[in-house]
Design goal:
Length: 263
């Protein structure tokens, strides 16, 4: 299948590692022009080199962008438009919110999670939409969590703001579908990244058991029998963000190896 991504301008937020990096790698394999970003110049530099080496695509660019800072977001998209004159694909992603239940988070945690995990996606969408409308082409993927379908105990900030993300994403999808802009949300279940390793460690500390026990139990709950690989997640992101997807919009999907029982 021709995904039609060759030469497309793709911006992947929070992509120095984990799911964002895996998505950037897959877009580079499709010969897109890829802009990666995160808070760390050094990490981005290494990631850029790795993507170029593994894919043979030299058209990979990096920009610092802290998703909780409006100025960083505006300046990233100013750079993209000045350099390439268009933007075809936006992959919204950011670091996970602080873990904890209701009593573990205070007002500043709530505000921080709003800034980083919801307002950031709204700001990036606002920055790209005028260009996508002018082009009459655009794809926006909002990376969320399986908590959009089934809350995860002890992750109240994720459960709250990812639900907001789905409402935002669905509403926006309906507003811009007539401009050939597709907007979808994709939630990872348990994909093997540092974030999942960190949550496993927190669970092990809380339950005072070895981390291997947490991993074993977690994998046994997944019908496929293992954590997902970031590349498996990224391939789905890339398909939905390509011109091969011209009709699926406004959806909230999970990539979870069959983990969730919710319909
Ligand atoms: N992996 C899973 O199975 C899973 C499950 C549910 C939800 N999620 C969610 O999916 C998202 C990505 O997760 P991941 O597993 O890929 O995490 P990860 O491996 O920890 O990677 C997080 C990425 O986000 C960047 N980042 C963190 N804070 C940022 C900020 N304020 N601005 C810009 N970039 C920032 C990090 O780069 P720098 O440190 O260089 O900034 C890094 O590149 C998170 O929101 C996570 O909660 C993941």
């Amino acid at each position: 299948m021709d995904l039609g991504l060759k030469g497309k301008i793709v911006v992947v937020m929070a992509s120095s590692k984990g799911l964002g990096k895996a998505a950037a790698m897959e877009f580079a394999k499709e010969n897109a022009t890829v802009v990666i970003s995160s808070r760390s110049q050094e990490a981005l530099k290494l990631t850029k080199e790795e993507i170029q080496k593994r894919t043979g695509n030299s058209d990979v660019h990096l920009r610092i962008c802290d998703m909780s800072k409006e100025h960083d977001i505006l300046s990233l998209f100013q750079f993209v438009i000045q350099k390439f004159g268009r933007i075809d694909v936006l992959i919204n992603n950011t670091g996970g919110p602080k873990a904890g239940g209701f009593s573990a988070v205070d007002d500043s945690d709530w505000y921080n999670a709003f800034d980083r995990n919801l307002l950031s996606y709204i700001r990036t969408a606002r920055a790209v939409l005028p260009h996508m409308k002018k082009q009459q082409f655009g794809r926006i993927i909002n990376i969320s969590s399986s908590s959009t379908k089934e809350v995860i105990d002890g992750l109240i900030l994720s459960n709250t703001f990812r639900a907001g993300m789905v409402g935002f994403s669905k509403t926006l999808a309906r507003e811009v579908a007539g401009d050939n802009i597709m907007v979808n949300t994709i939630g990872p279940g348990r994909i093997a990244t540092d974030r999942v390793a960190e949550l496993n460690q927190l669970a092990a500390d809380r339950q005072q058991v070895p981390i291997e026990k947490i991993i074993q139990k977690s994998e046994s709950e997944i019908p496929v029998g293992r954590f997902g690989d970031p590349e498996e997640f990224a391939k789905i992101v890339v398909f939905l963000a390509s011109s091969a997807n011209s009709y699926l919009t406004g959806q909230s999907l999970v990539v979870d190896g069959g983990l969730l029982k919710a319909l």
